[in-house]
């Protein structure tokens, strides 16, 4: 088979799997699990084959036009360069792991067939985005991912949190997608084509008339999809979905689509210095804010969600200084370790029966209950905190090195962008290490009652943790020398200055948290807290749904718990209260947008009910009255009707006679 | 024979039938009255056919053909009609037309069976016509 055929099959197989899964889900439940797992694995194998054949060399381009579509043609096009080939492998690996994990995690879930089909559809859409060489085809995949995310976040739709979170995720990402669509049209109008290669050619020859406008419009869509400030608020709430979904969609792949999109069209953004500075500011605010917020969250998955936002901030920071190689390198290693973190968190939530870190910190011996999750999560947290020689270290150092280089003299990016992102990146390194340390200490070093024993975790759930632990541990160190061949050829080796600075700051953050924890842990045993949710015999998915539903009643909010012994409380001081609720961004949006819209809606409702309907009722009154009068003639006596008929006939006959005789 | 005799006879027949339809309460008698009306029409058809064929050398005798047609239809009609009356009688124990008022507007609340009301409504229906 040619490489093009293989590449077409990569997104097509999960799509067929999704269609078959939806059709056969009820009639043949035995086929659901194979139909979920096999297409994902097959497309992973094909993606690897495509990557091997492409080999980081000349990009593979293929296009076919199905039908003429007016002024600017829309083509089914492939554009596979080194970025696309490697990101596709990442998507394949994470999707396969998540599908295998889900067979164990949602074992007893009655809605598993539709869940698995939606995950397959999502995988297919993401692969379409990765391989597409045409912006409109890319947009199709982009929107399918959005709707799949909506359905999957709302998987536990019995809980009000999940319903609210799914609607919020959909609305906020759509808010970004509208400017995104307009931006695509503007770009295509200038370039005369939706093909990425032609768009980039136009940009290179200076044919783009409004680069700043186009770049800012596109940036809005990217901010929505990649959960960057100010459109990041949906991601922490999206943790109301099942953990494998959080791992696949809200950590490793979909949120990376925005970063990947900018990496594809980086020259468009580079054409506008203003857009690059906006991107840098956005990345910096996102990084620091999410790091602080992560330090104050009580739900283990919300900590990881804020950490995802922060790591995506690193990637956009690298893009803001024009180094897409570093951004995609961090995307790859982050995808591996963040998927691992989420899947391990799912195991921990199942074992502990709660998603609250405060409750876990009062459990002794949780790490002995889930040794696989303990060891793999330790690896992934070290990678997240960028401690050498874990993969996160190399990718984050390449980002910091690029930002450091941009503070000097380059043509690619404004100097301001370099300084902003470098300072924010170093600050975030401290915060990242701090919240990683806090998560690890609270989850695994708890003191108090013995952790509940639910027996061994399913094999499908623990094996994938070790599979993902391998790239978390070794991907960075093995790949940083060969990756430049796949990317733009820019060096990704860590530089001495940023390595020492970054690692030193990470150590500082970790040690500070440890000291704070030592200080507070003495009192922790004396303050009992909270309820452990869920009946332990239930499947993992059930336990998690109950834990999410039980968090607000037990602790007074989905995000925080009144835990005086939280080291984060000591570290953040007066900031803690604000960080726990995400710096009131949701409250600001509620005041600025939600309440005016609701007030407008009630005004419209009043106008419709009281004003418009009065006119309608008035217009209807006369016919009603006439109708009531005519209705009384319906006595049900046939002879009356015939009498009336006869009388009418006689009158007509007399009238006709009078007319005919001309009287 | 002059055309006036059959015409007058058929008019008398028709009026008798009409009176029966309007005034009789038994459904079977109403059906019989309908038959009378139909036969009045048949008589008219035959008489005028003969008269016209004499005047205009019409050899097609379409009036007579139509009469045969009407008789056939009437036979079918009376068969179905009697079957319905029988079914109604078995079902309700009566074939009194005045009591079969299921199609009345709001017939559940059986209002006063007033002839005055009927007359008033007939007037209204006339006005509408």
TrEMBL record, chain A:
InterPro entries: NADHpl_OxRdtase_5_subgr, ND/Mrp_TM, NU5C-like, Proton_antipo_N
Transmembrane helix is among the record's keywords: yes
The keyword Transmembrane is assigned to this record: yes
Keyword vocabulary terms for this entry: Membrane, Transmembrane, Transmembrane helix
Domain NADH-Ubiquinone oxidoreductase (complex I) chain 5 N-terminal: start-end pairs: 68-115
Residue intervals passing through the bilayer: 6-24, 36-56, 76-100, 112-130, 136-157, 169-188, 208-224, 245-263, 275-296, 303-321, 327-352, 373-395, 415-437, 458-480, 500-517, 641-660
Location(s), subcellular: Endomembrane system; Membrane
Domain NADH:quinone oxidoreductase/Mrp antiporter transmembrane intervals: 132-407
Membrane topology: Multi-pass membrane protein
Major subcellular location class: membrane
Protein name: NADH-quinone oxidoreductase subunit L
Native organism taxonomy: Bacteria, Bacillati, Actinomycetota, Actinomycetes, Kitasatosporales
Automatic annotation (TrEMBL), chain B:
Basic and acidic residues bias: start-end ranges: 99-110
Catalytic activity: a quinone + NADH + 5 H(+)(in) = a quinol + NAD(+) + 4 H(+)(out)
Location in or out of the cell: Cell membrane; Membrane
Low complexity bias: start-end ranges: 116-129
Enzyme class, spelled out: translocase
Bilayer topology: Multi-pass membrane protein
Predominant cellular place of this UniProt entry's protein: membrane
Sections of the chain in a coiled coil: none
Family: Belongs to the complex I subunit 4L family.
Role description: NDH-1 shuttles electrons from NADH, via FMN and iron-sulfur (Fe-S) centers, to quinones in the respiratory chain. The immediate electron acceptor for the enzyme in this species is believed to be a menaquinone. Couples the redox reaction to proton translocation (for every two electrons transferred, four hydrogen ions are translocated across the cytoplasmic membrane), and thus conserves the redox energy in a proton gradient.
Name of the molecule in the record: NADH-quinone oxidoreductase subunit K
Species, as recorded: Streptomyces coacervatus
């Amino acid at each position: 088979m040619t490489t093009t055929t293989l590449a077409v099959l990569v997104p097509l197989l999960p799509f067929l799997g999704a269609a078959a899964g939806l059709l056969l889900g009820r009639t043949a439940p035995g086929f659901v699990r194979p139909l979920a797992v096999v297409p994902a694995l097959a497309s992973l194998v094909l993606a690897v084959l495509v990557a091997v054949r492409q080999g980081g060399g000349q990009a593979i381009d293929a296009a076919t036009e199905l039908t003429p579509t007016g002024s600017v043609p829309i083509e089914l096009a492939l554009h596979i360069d080194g970025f696309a080939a490697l990101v596709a492998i990442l998507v394949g690996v994470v999707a396969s792991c998540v599908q295998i994990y889900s067979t164990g995690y949602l074992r007893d879930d009655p809605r598993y067939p539709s869940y698995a089909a939606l995950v397959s559809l999502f995988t297919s859409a993401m692969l379409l985005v990765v391989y597409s060489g045409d912006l409109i085809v890319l947009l199709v995949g982009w929107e399918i991912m959005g709707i799949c995310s909506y359905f999957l976040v709302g998987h536990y739709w019995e809980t009000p949190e999940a319903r609210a979170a799914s609607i919020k995720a959909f609305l906020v990402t759509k808010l970004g997608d509208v400017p995104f669509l307009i931006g695509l049209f503007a770009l295509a109008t200038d370039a005369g084509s939706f093909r990425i290669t032609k768009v980039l050619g136009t940009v290179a020859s200076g044919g783009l008339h409004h680069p700043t406008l186009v770049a800012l419009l596109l940036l809005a869509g990217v901010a929505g999809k990649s959960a960057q400030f100010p459109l990041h608020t949906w991601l922490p709430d999206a943790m109301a979905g099942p953990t494998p979904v959080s791992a696949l969609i809200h950590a490793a792949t979909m949120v990376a689509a925005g970063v990947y999109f900018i990496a594809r069209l980086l020259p468009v953004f580079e054409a506008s210095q203003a857009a690059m500075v906006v991107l840098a500011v956005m990345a910096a605010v996102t990084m620091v804010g999410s790091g602080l917020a992560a330090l104050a969250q009580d739900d283990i998955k919300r900590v990881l969600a804020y950490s995802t936002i922060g790591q995506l901030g690193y990637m956009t920071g690298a893009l803001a200084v024009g180094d897409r190689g570093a951004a995609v390198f961090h995307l790859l290693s982050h995808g591996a370790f963040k998927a691992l973190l989420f899947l391990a968190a799912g195991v921990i939530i199942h074992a502990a029966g709660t998603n609250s870190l405060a409750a876990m910190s009062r459990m002794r011996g949780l790490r002995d209950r889930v040794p696989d999750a303990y060891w793999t999560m330790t690896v992934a947290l070290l990678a997240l905190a960028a401690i050498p020689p874990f993969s996160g270290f190399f990718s984050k150092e390449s980002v910091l090195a690029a930002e450091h280089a941009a503070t000097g003299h380059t043509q690619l990016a404004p100097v301001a962008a370099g300084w902003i992102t470098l300072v924010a990146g170093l600050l975030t390194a401290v915060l990242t290490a701090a919240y990683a340390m806090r998560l690890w200490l609270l989850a695994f070093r708890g003191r108090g009652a013995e952790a509940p024993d639910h027996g061994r975790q399913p094999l499908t759930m623990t094996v994938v943790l070790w599979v993902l632990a391998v790239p978390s541990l070794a991907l960075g160190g093995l790949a940083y020398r060969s990756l430049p061949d796949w990317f733009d050829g820019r060096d990704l080796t860590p530089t001495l200055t940023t390595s020492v600075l970054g690692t030193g700051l990470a150590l500082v953050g970790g040690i500070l948290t440890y000291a704070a924890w030592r200080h507070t842990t003495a009192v922790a045993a004396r303050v009992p807290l909270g309820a452990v949710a869920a009946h332990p015999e239930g499947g993992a998915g059930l336990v998690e749904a109950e834990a999410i539903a039980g968090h607000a009643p037990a602790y007074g909010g989905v995000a925080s718990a009144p835990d005086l012994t939280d080291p984060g409380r000591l570290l953040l001081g007066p900031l803690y209260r604000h960080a726990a609720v995400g710096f009131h961004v949701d409250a600001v949006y509620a005041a600025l947008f939600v309440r005016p819209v609701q007030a407008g809606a009630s005004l419209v409702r009043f106008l419709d009910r009281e004003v418009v309907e009065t006119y309608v009722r008035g217009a209807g009154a006369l016919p009603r009255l006439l109708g009531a009068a005519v209705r009384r003639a319906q006595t049900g006596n046939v002879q009356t009707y015939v009498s009336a008929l006869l009388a009418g006939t006689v009158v007509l006959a007399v009238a006709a006679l009078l007319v005919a005789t001309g009287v | 024979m002059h055309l006036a005799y059959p015409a007058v006879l058929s008019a008398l027949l028709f009026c008798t039938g009409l009176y029966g339809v309007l005034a009789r309460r038994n459904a079977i008698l109403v059906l019989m009255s309908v038959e009378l009306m139909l036969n009045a029409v048949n008589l008219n058809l035959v008489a005028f056919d003969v008269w016209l064929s004499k005047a205009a050398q019409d050899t097609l005798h379409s009036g007579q053909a139509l009469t045969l047609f009407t008789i056939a239809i009437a036979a079918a009609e009376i068969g179905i009609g009697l079957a319905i009356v029988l079914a109604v009688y078995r079902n309700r124990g009566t074939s009194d037309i005045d009591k079969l008022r299921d199609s009345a507007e709001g017939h559940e609340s059986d209002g006063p069976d007033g002839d005055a009301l009927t007359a008033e409504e007939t007037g209204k229906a006339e006005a509408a016509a």
